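Lecture notes, unit on protein representations.

Consider one protein chain, 336 amino acids long.
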Amino acid sequence: MGQNMTDRAEYGLVTPVDLARMSEQVAQRLHDFLPFTPFVRFATLSDRVGAEVLVKCEHLQRTGSFKARGSLAKLLSLTDEQRDRGVVAASSGNHGLGVAHALDLLGGRGIVFVPENVASVKVDAIRRFGVEIRSHGTDSGAVEIMARQFATDEGLTYISPYNDVDVIAGQGTVGVEIAEQLAGAGLDAIFVAVGGGGLISGIAAVLRQHLPNIRVYGAAPANDAAMVASVRAGQVVGVEARPTLSDGTAGSVEPGAITLRLCQSLVDEWVLVSEDEIRDALRFVIDTEHQLIEGAAAAAFAAAIGRSAELAGQRVAVVSCGANISARTLATALIE
């Protein structure tokens, strides 16, 4: 097949094996710019779940989120001319911050489209890198469509938060690191928060090459679970979204997203978590580990806590995907 991976992705031909190979390759390049994040046992969480729970601390990654990986991987795949001409991203915050950070490292200019209701702390962080912000509507899925069309009209490169094989491979480097940090030890299950599905697709594609029997759980807020609904429907569908503390996973899925097929094949089970469960997990991690996480990360912790009965005695991983939560949102979550 003479097509490159991006072309193959457009035709639905990229396989998990392809993605795992890409993640292994790009991991070497990302390590020149980004640190390994800790993969450590959370003792009190392990006691609560009744299992050995290891946490991949992406909330300690540069920009405060795993999104730094996929954004940088995509920017590294472009030429200097493409970066100088400009890139366009659509984001609920973390992806835009990742793109801005990558541009700061590699050079180039960018425009980030965000929903009007995105957390101000994330918008302010993007602006500090000198990237232009454009706000439109409240649905991140609609913003993605608008941003992609703008990039096409202006001859700029669009960087999707998840619907891009290079971005997914970059997110998959989380799995590359986990495999290395396990140092040959086993892992029974992993919990990952899911919005557009790029993170879980990349991680699962990699880990299945090393741990073929691992059980992959996708965690999503019950208030806004577009990917879960799409997987169950067998096609991208919209949902009637309600507000959620897990704003990093909020929003609809882009029509034709390659992550739908990947999630269908790679995710074993979906766990919908309530706002009370997300809030409880957020408080629990802060109170017991004294580490700041955002709502999307708390959703993954909540899913693991909710499945304690079936995880008893196992070795389990939770991906703590980010820490970008505003003081106002945090205060509200802690006192309600």
